[in-house]
Amino acid sequence: MKEKKKINWFWEGIIFLFLSGVVVGKVNAQTVTKVTAIPYRVEITADPGEVVTKQLKVRNEGDTQIGLQVKIQDFVVNDKEGTPYPVEAKNAGRWAASQWITVSPQKFILNPGETKTLDFVAIVPEDAHPGGHYAVVFYAPVGGNIGELEGETTGASAVTPSVGTLVYFNVKGEIKEDARVTRFEIPRFLEYGPVKITTEIQNFSDIHIKPLGVIRIYDMLGHLRTTLKLDERNIFPGASLVYQNTWKQKWGLGKYKATLEAGYGTQGKALVATAFFWIIPWRVITVTVLVIILAVLLVIYFKKPKEIKEEETPPLPKNA
Question: How far apart are CA 1 and CA 117, in angstroms?
Fold first, then answer.
């Protein structure tokens, strides 16, 4: 179990770096190497059997020469945060696309400030399943002397994690689009805000989706109090994504209704959910009630003796 966690932490670190499109490393504890992948994501819509050509770029933002080599892998998303994990083609199943892609040159050297243009060619198989297929083009550092790339020894070296470009394929055909809200949670009773809202959407489609929507909150009189926007993020096939929203209102009183209204896919399908919650500042209410009761008792206490004294005082004689 510990070994598995270590592997997951390693991949999460690598994925974070290549999703941002920038990687930073140290060479000989003095020289900084910074590589940028342009673009960090490519989306391709193609027919089965179609040949797609594009250009990718890699730029050396650092101050030292670096040698890189191209590695192409499939990736899947298994967690609820949308983190892509590189896998072997056999583990990617029907979502695999790495075998379709060729990038040239396979190895190259980047001087400081240099940008390298790479030729990207993808051949979509005739029998490709309609829907999504996913791969990543890594630019991995070459171990040892980078001069070996050109058949010479320069003595310069570069040690840095991989950086890469995500590739999303949408193969045309009969594509199922289906997603559901599996969780729409708000604490039922709150003393005061902020109000945290958790939404989970699961994608049962043949392709990744990007739901667009809002959460609206109404008070007990039906007045709209606020509108919160869902983050625009991709949900990959078979995966779930958890959204976190916060209504920053601190004070409130009564019953509230929250409604999720979102749409996704090319057919404009809807995602709808409703939840109710109460905001009751019971401590404030309790103190207020006690203060009112105390004030009433004090009024009664100080007023009652005066009335009794007036009743007990005998009238003065008329002839006095």
Answer: 42
